[in-house]
Specification:
six-stranded antiparallel sheet; 22% helix; alpha+beta; 38% strand
């Protein structure tokens, strides 16, 4: 038994659960001959809910036999409005607390006549959108529909309206600048015309002065409008770059089976201060301009440092941060390969508040056999708690209001992407419960 796919977290008053997709291989025949072992297995897939606070399994429901699934992969897609979405050769939605089936192709077709006979059985035709909480369905005729998870009603996607919002806004800015330039060209043409008329004495000095005064007023007004549009364009470009960087960070950390070095970063900003986990050699090479960087050195004995930060240009929406010259060491704690754990939802390090704390991941020894430890540390360098996960790698980790939930594998019988360990680490004191899918 093992969990496959990324688990989903669901919270409701007084209860938080982890919803998992479980694969079970049951041996049906076993033969050993000449040093070779052959066995046949029957595979089934179930959904399972575990209570975060205790780790206990509270519900398990078989969904499919392997032979019933016509196309692969079979995986959890995401969660919307208390529905766990699963793809197993077809789109399925379950209540995570009761395992009641709330959506399947039959129900979707009954509610949406336009989908009747047009639903595909391949995963690539179903795009789960984390940001909007909708599922985009591509039908057999090529039309795309957005599925509202609250009503299970679909709406046809307008390809033109769905054009990239950033590109659309950039076009509007360029159009406004073009109109301003046209008005400016017309104004200067009138200016040259008055100059010409005055030079040949077609107009009086008074008329010429009036025309110059009008020209100056209109030119100043156009310059103000142009400057305001340039400000909007600058802000827009900053926002675009900022969110593009954020999206790349999130995409990178969301990849399946990340290695240890990619789940952490060595520098962070918190409460107008910089914090870093470095050894003296690497600390000397830090640039003044802050960025999130990840150093890999399996023997690095990192300590916690801090310094102040200043804002280089406060007029920018996302200004650059400059580190102070003197970086002060906080405490004497050593974190082997230590770094700040990144939140998979934001692509940035995890920050805990009330009280303020940072989450650090580090190894218990060098080499491939090193196991990941998790520590909570105060901003004055005091270790609040440390827990050895007994895992060499994390497959997934998610933050709830009170817990850090981690999945991974420690059984040699399992393949890549198959996990047996579910850990629930209480953020207040590090108390941890463990569930083993392999056994239960």
């Amino acid at each position: 038994r093992c969990a496959i796919s990324k688990p989903l977290v669901f919270e409701r008053p007084g209860d938080t659960i982890i919803f998992s997709l479980v694969k079970f291989d049951k041996t049906t025949s076993y033969q050993s001959n000449g040093g070779f072992v052959r066995k046949s297995v029957a595979t089934s897939y179930s959904i399972q809910s575990n209570r975060v606070s205790s780790g206990e399994k509270i519900l398990e429901t078989k969904v499919k036999e392997h032979g019933d699934v016509k196309t692969f992969p079979i995986e959890l897609m995401g969660s919307t409005d208390s529905i766990a979405w699963l793809f197993a050769g077809e789109l399925l939605g379950f209540n995570p607390f009761t395992h009641q089936l709330v959506a399947d192709p039959t129900k979707l077709e009954n509610l949406n006549e336009r989908l009747r006979g047009k639903l595909m059985n391949e995963r690539k035709y179903y795009d789960f959108n984390e940001a909007t909480g909708t599922i985009e369905i591509t039908a057999k005729d090529g039309n795309k529909y957005n599925l509202d998870p609250r009503t299970l009603i679909v709406a046809l996607v307008d390809d033109e309206a769905a054009d990239d919002i950033r590109k659309s806004r950039q076009k509007r800015i360029e159009k406004e600048l073009k109109l301003i330039q046209q008005r400016s060209d017309m104004l200067f043409a009138r200016y040259r015309n008055f100059n010409k008329q005055y030079s040949v004495h077609s107009i009086s000095m008074g008329a010429f002065r009036d025309s110059m005064e009008t020209f100056q007023q209109k030119r100043k007004l156009l310059d103000k409008i142009r400057d305001s549009i340039y400000t909007v364009q600058r802000d827009f470009d900053e926002i675009t770059r900022h969110y593009a960087d954020r999206d790349r960070a999130i995409e990178s950390i969301q990849r399946n089976n990340p290695n240890f070095s990619s789940i952490k970063t060595n520098g962070d900003t918190f409460n107008l201060k910089w914090f870093g986990l470095y050894n003296p050699e690497d600390l000397a090479d830090i640039p003044q301009r802050f960025d999130y960087r990840n150093l890999y050195n399996e023997a690095a004995r990192n300590r916690l440092y801090t310094t102040g930060i200043t804002i280089q240009d406060s007029s920018k929406r996302f200004p650059e941060l400059l580190l102070g010259e003197e970086k002060r060491r906080i405490g004497n704690e050593v974190f082997l390969q230590g770094g700040f754990l990144i939140d998979r939802k934001t692509g940035r390090p995890i920050h805990l508040h009330s009280p303020d704390r940072l989450i650090i991941v580090h190894k218990d020894q060098v080499g491939r056999e090193g196991l990941i430890q998790v520590s909570a540390i105060s901003t004055n360098g005091k270790i609040i708690w440390t827990h050895n996960t007994r895992l060499k790698e994390f497959s997934d980790w998610q933050l709830t209001n009170q817990y850090l939930v981690i999945t991974g594998g420690d059984k040699k019988e399992l393949s890549s992407g198959e996990n047996n360990v579910l850990l629930s680490v209480r953020l207040s004191d590090g108390n941890t419960v463990r569930h083993d899918f392999f056994k239960m």
